[in-house]
């Protein structure tokens, strides 16, 4: 797959909103791509997308490798309609209220309504007000509609997504936009599926677009139970390098995917991922996570009798804002790394991990 | 017309794109057009009348300028004009002649310490990230002094409203432009001015050059009809028509000038409200105090969230402000 094709996929996936609990349109969009490269596609009872790419016919034993990326994004829900038609809202997922004033949003009511999170004009502010953060429950959304119109078309509980079209930076080497957490990881998964159409693989590969990660890894819990894979790798984003943050917590954009090590991950699998990167000359970085990785990997690892799990992350700056930023090269490398992992996966290796 | 004007970048001191666009719109008119040394665009329509009329609207908008490029290739900046720096985190911007995209990102919520969110980000610590990986690379694309504008597209929204940047004061520019392009017999001078946001600089020399007897400033002003706003009573309301000024930081509008506007609105059954908010300055002062003094009135289109990338303005308000400005011109012919 050419880089431009991957960029187009990222653009396409990020153009659809899918806040946690309201992912169906985003899932549908992802399904279009997986359909091209996979043999079977279905939704589980919870709504996770499960796309199966079957092993070569001569595979000696049936094993399944799950590659999991969450498809949901942070957002908000309407909590109250104020006089004047202004909307109060509550966050879905972790949002810093300081990145919200002045941001464009879409309210998904009877139809989609563009709006803005109001930011009082500086002319009307006192010095004291300027030095205070407006807490999230005092922020409001303005759709430009009257109270009566809003009352008829928007309900308490309707989802709200941040609105921002993804755009190129640095002549296409970087991308910036919203929901790159985790449509970036999803794009790498699609790239992996595309690469695998030209490669042999001895195990079944299952691509999972999981729901509700941002509110507590909920989709991964049911998906891992339902599919019961022999091995799983979660694909998500991690923090990119930025000024004012200690380098030990961040990873350089453009320096390759990040392989996680720590108690959340099977050590042999983590090492294997690093070996593959070395073998195929893929530049990579290593992240030591001392406990909860706050990714789908955390839920998958303890599903049923336990599933050996790994994590590949894409460095991303300014997470959970509308100006998230990734390097295209990292998305490509992550997709290729996963494809080499999948195509080289041997029954004996899985047996070793499972201790059987 | 508003969408086009809003999408042009014209930070105070670099209004070229707005001016060229206006010149292009006016090129088939018989009007006498001049551009002065600061960049004000002065358009004389019709014949010279004994009591010269001046309409003024500023072309510039608030934004940022690049002040330094650091070792990591990040761009430090300073606001141009009045901006609440709390709206900057999470913005996408475009800078320089090539309008390169950049973002103002901040430390993600996951890496923050407890209680960090109670204090706004220190504006001194903010920077623009355009994806450059070194100072050397950044210097190839960005220069100290480059102007930075909010990167948004104007869209129509709600009931007869628009969302976008720079309505302050492209709405005023649009009203003047319409009066210059429509088929009317009115004689007046229109001044599209520069550098209002940094101290009504352009209007000073425009008024000196035109030496009007009567002036009307067509502006955009803050609407305060939003929740929790303590100054709600003292502000303007979106969708309630043009706001007539009583006073602001720059001018005491004479009862005569103000009364004329009110009488005209009442006579023609045009909606209007008073700009009950008396802070912030307009070009009114610069014009009223030029020469031996000029009778100056100020009328504004209310606009929510002005000086932010996503402000909201009502086309109904704009059209009624246009009607009131036209009535003012007719009265003084």
Structural account:
The complex is a heterodimer of chains A (about 350) and B (about 325). Chain A has about 350 residues and is an alpha+beta fold. Helices cover about 30% and strands about 25% of the residues of chain A. Chain A has helices at about 5-15, 25-35, 125-130, 145-155, 180-195, 220-225, 265-280, 295-300, 330-345, 345-355, and strands at about 40-45, 50-55, 65-70, 75-80, 85-90, 105-110, 110-115, 140, 160, 165-170, 175, 205-210, 230-240, 260, 285-290, 310-315, 325. Chain A starts with a helix and ends with a helix. Chain B has about 325 residues and is α+β, with helices and mostly antiparallel strands. The mean pLDDT of chain B is about 95. Chain B has 2 domains: about 1-60 and about 165-330, Zn peptidases (Aminopeptidase), CATH 3.40.630; about 65-150, Elongation Factor Tu (Ef-tu), domain 3, CATH 2.40.30. Chains A and B meet through strand 7 and strand 10 of A and strand 7 and strand 16 of B.
What's a concise summary of this model?
The complex is a heterodimer of chains A (356) and B (333). The longest helix of chain A is centred in the middle third of the chain and has 17 residues, at 180-196.
Sum up the structure in keywords:
A: 356 residues; Aminopeptidase; eight-stranded mixed β-sheet; six-stranded antiparallel β-sheet; 30% helix; B: 333 residues; alpha+beta; Elongation Factor Tu (Ef-tu), domain 3; five-stranded antiparallel β-sheet; 25% strand; globular
Secondary-structure topology with pairs:
The complex is a heterodimer of chains A (356) and B (333).
Chain A: H1 3-14, H2 24-37, E1 40-43, E2 49-53, E3 64-70, E4 75-81, E5 87-92, E6 104-108, E7 112-117, H3 127-130, E8 141-142, H4 147-153, E9 159-162, E10 167-169, E11 174-177, H5 180-196, E12 204-210, H6 218-227, E13 231-239, E14 258-261, H7 267-279, E15 285-288, H8 296-300, E16 309-316, E17 324-327, H9 328-344, H10 347-354
Parallel strand pairs in A: 3-12, 3-13, 13-16, 14-15
Antiparallel strand pairs in A: 1-2, 2-12, 4-5, 4-9, 6-7, 6-9, 7-8, 10-11, 11-17, 14-16
Helix pairs in contact in A: 1-5, 2-5, 5-9, 7-9
Chain B: H1 2-7, H2 16-26, E1 32-35, E2 41-45, E3 53-58, E4 63-69, E5 75-80, E6 91-95, E7 100-104, H3 135-141, E8 147-150, E9 155-157, E10 161-164, H4 167-181, E11 188-193, H5 201-210, E12 214-222, E13 243-245, H6 255-267, E14 273-275, H7 283-288, E15 295-304, E16 311-314, H8 315-331
Parallel strand pairs in B: 3-11, 3-12, 12-15, 13-14
Antiparallel strand pairs in B: 1-2, 2-11, 4-5, 4-8, 6-7, 6-8, 9-10, 10-16, 13-15, 15-16
């Amino acid at each position: 797959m050419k880089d431009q094709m991957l960029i187009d996929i990222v653009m396409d996936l990020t153009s659809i909103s899918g806040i946690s609990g309201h992912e169906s349109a985003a899932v549908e969009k992802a399904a279009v791509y997986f359909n091209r490269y996979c043999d079977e596609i279905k939704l589980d009872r919870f709504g996770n997308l499960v796309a199966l790419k079957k092993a070569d016919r001569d595979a000696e034993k049936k094993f399944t490798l799950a590659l999991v990326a969450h498809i949901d994004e942070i957002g908000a829900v309407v909590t109250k309609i104020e006089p004047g038609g202004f909307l109060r809202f509550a966050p879905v997922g972790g949002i810093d209220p300081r990145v919200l004033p002045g941001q464009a949003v879409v309210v998904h009511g009877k139809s989609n309504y563009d709006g803005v999170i109001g930011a009082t004009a500086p002319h009307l502010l006192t010095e004291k007000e300027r030095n205070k953060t407006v807490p999230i429950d005092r922020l409001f959304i303005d759709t430009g509609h009257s109270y009566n119109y809003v009352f008829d078309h928007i309900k308490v509980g309707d989802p709200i997504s941040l609105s921002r079209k993804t755009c190129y930076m640095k002549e296409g080497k970087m991308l910036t936009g919203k929901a790159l957490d985790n449509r970036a990881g999803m794009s790498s998964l699609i790239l992996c599926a595309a690469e695998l159409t030209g490669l042999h693989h001895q195990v079944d590969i299952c691509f999972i677009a999981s729901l509700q990660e941002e509110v507590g890894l909920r989709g991964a819990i049911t998906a891992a139970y339902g599919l019961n894979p022999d091995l799983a790798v979660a694909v998500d984003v991690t923090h990119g390098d930025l000024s004012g943050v200690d380098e030990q917590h961040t990873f350089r954009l453009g320096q390759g995917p990040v392989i996680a090590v720590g108690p959340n991950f099977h050590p042999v699998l983590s090492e294997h991922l690093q070996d593959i990167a070395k073998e195929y000359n893929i530049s990579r970085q290593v992240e030591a996570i001392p406990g909860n990785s706050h990714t789908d990997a955390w839920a998958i690892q303890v599903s049923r009798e336990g599933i050996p799990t790994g994590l590949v992350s894409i460095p991303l700056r300014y997470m959970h804002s509308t100006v998230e930023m990734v390097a295209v090269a990292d998305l490509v490398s992550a997709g290729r790394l996963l494809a080499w992992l999948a195509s080289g996966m041997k029954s004996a290796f899985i047996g070793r991990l499972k201790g059987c | 017309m508003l969408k086009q004007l809003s999408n042009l970048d014209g930070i105070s001191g670099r209004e070229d794109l707005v001016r060229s666009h206006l010149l292009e719109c006016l090129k088939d008119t018989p009007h006498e057009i001049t551009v002065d040394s600061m960049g004000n665009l002065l358009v004389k329509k019709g014949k010279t009348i004994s009591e010269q009329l001046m309409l003024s609207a500023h072309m510039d908008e608030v934004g940022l300028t690049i002040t330094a490029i650091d070792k990591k290739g990040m761009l430090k900046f300073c606001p141009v004009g009045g901006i609440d720096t709390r709206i900057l985190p999470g913005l996408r911007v475009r800078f320089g002649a090539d309008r390169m995209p950049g973002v103002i990102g901040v430390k993600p919520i996951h890496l923050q310490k407890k209680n960090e969110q109670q204090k706004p980000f220190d504006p001194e610590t903010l920077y623009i990230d355009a994806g450059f990986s070194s100072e050397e690379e950044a210097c190839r694309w960005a220069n100290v002094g480059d102007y930075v504008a909010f990167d948004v597209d104007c869209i129509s929204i709600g009931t007869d409203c628009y969302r976008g940047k720079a309505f302050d004061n492209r709405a005023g520019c649009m009203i003047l432009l319409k009066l210059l392009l429509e088929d009317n017999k009115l004689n007046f001078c229109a001044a599209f001015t520069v550098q209002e946001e940094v101290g009504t600089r352009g209007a000073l020399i425009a008024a000196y050059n035109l030496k009007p007897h009567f002036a009307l400033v067509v502006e955009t002003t803050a609407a305060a009809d939003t929740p929790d706003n303590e100054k709600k009573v003292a502000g303007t309301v979106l969708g309630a028509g043009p706001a007539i000024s009583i006073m602001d930081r720059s001018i005491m509008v004479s009862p005569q000038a103000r009364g004329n506007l009110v009488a005209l609105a009442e006579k023609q059954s045009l909606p209007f409200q008073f700009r009950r908010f008396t802070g912030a300055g307009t070009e009114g002062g610069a014009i009223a105090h030029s020469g031996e003094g000029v009778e100056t009135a100020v009328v504004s289109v209310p606009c929510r969230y002005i000086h932010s990338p996503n402000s909201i303005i009502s086309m109904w308000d704009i059209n009624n402000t246009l009607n009131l400005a036209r009535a003012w011109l007719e009265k003084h012919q």
